[in-house]
Amino acid sequence: MNPKTESREPEKDDEETAPLLREPREGLPEVTADPDALSDVVSALSSGSGPVAVDAERASGYRYGQRAYLVQLRREGAGSALIDPIACPDLSELNSALRDTEMVLHAAHQDLPCLTEVYLRPESLFDTELAGRLLGYHRVGLGSMVERLLNVRLAKEHSAVDWSQRPLPEDWLRYAALDVEILVDLRDRLEAELEESGKLPWALEEFASVLNAPPKEPRRDPWRRTSGIHRVRNQRALAAVRELWYERDRIAQERDISPGRVLPDAAIVEAASTMPRTSAELTKIRQFGIKLARRYVPTWISAVNRARDMEQSELPRPNAPGDGPPPVNRWADRSPEAARRLESARATVAQMAEDVVMPAENLLLPDTVRRLAWTPPEEVEPGSVGEFLRSRGAREWQIGLTAQPLATALTDAQKS
């Protein structure tokens, strides 16, 4: 099966404007918010036909965590449903009714965790965003893909609102219902293109991989992802970042509010850099003047003081510990041979990705390429490279495409 190599991005007249999708076909459904209404929705959806379009709305930036505050579904013959997962937190009855039904999601990795929390978990998946990536589309947002492939526009003005609000405004609910209105139509168009390009088997492997991925382990040292932390220059200041971050996270969790609304990252970095000793010094930092941050001034000062009083052995390391290779900018000094292997492997993957028309990271994860270049198999040949890739979670289609060229690239780099 030889995938076509031409770009899948269709031409579009700059002057053309696709019509805006304004109303669900059967009108705006009532929000399902009690067990009796949920049973009716389950019955309707189970009697429908074909795949089920699924979407979820979270309250990122407003609430702590990533729980769902609205779940939208649509199926041919059943119409659309809007379910309030706060009022109906157990969708296992719906999950059982749709057990053998393909569910269509856009960017499934974003919604699957919050859907799993309410016991809705597909056994068969079609991910329209991932399909778009495999087909080489440059813009894979739902709005962009719907406009290009189906010639209609979706309004996106409510994509970042506080979905935990109750009651939800009607125009928000209409926006949410329209997100699943033509998701199955998009799925059908993408499946046809995957079939035409020879990439459908690859997509099916990718969808199965998304479904079977284990839950993410809690991130080690999550405080190290504080925006602007690169400006923190010493270990004691890093300790202050850590202490402030964990206090903020505790408060955010207790109040069920986004951590950034308790205290911005910029405030944490500034306090860690200046190490204020008093409340007056702390509140001179502009971001500590916001109402909620001011309420916890003693907490912030205590956190900074803990960092100030720590023994040297208690301070965090400047760089996060990891099990992977060192930063690439150090390879040339630490292992010139590995640097040559990486350059050759990256070039090989980039060329292959261009040949099959998809982003290089969808052909093979950059971290996998780095690890292979840093610590290749003792005997470099296609079989051993394939086993290495498999051990890092590469799918069989990826291994089939890349193992031989990467083995050649690594061998050639060793000879140079």
UniProtKB/TrEMBL annotation:
Signal peptide: none
HRDC domain location: 234-314
Skewed-composition ranges (Basic and acidic residues): 1-11
InterPro entries, sorted: 3'-5'_exonuclease_dom, Exo_C, HRDC-like_sf, HRDC_dom, HRDC_dom_sf, RNase_D-like, RNaseH-like_sf, RNaseH_sf
Region (Disordered): 1-36, 311-332
Pfam family, one: HRDC
Listed PANTHER family: RIBONUCLEASE D
Name of this chain's protein: Ribonuclease D
Organism: Nocardiopsis coralli
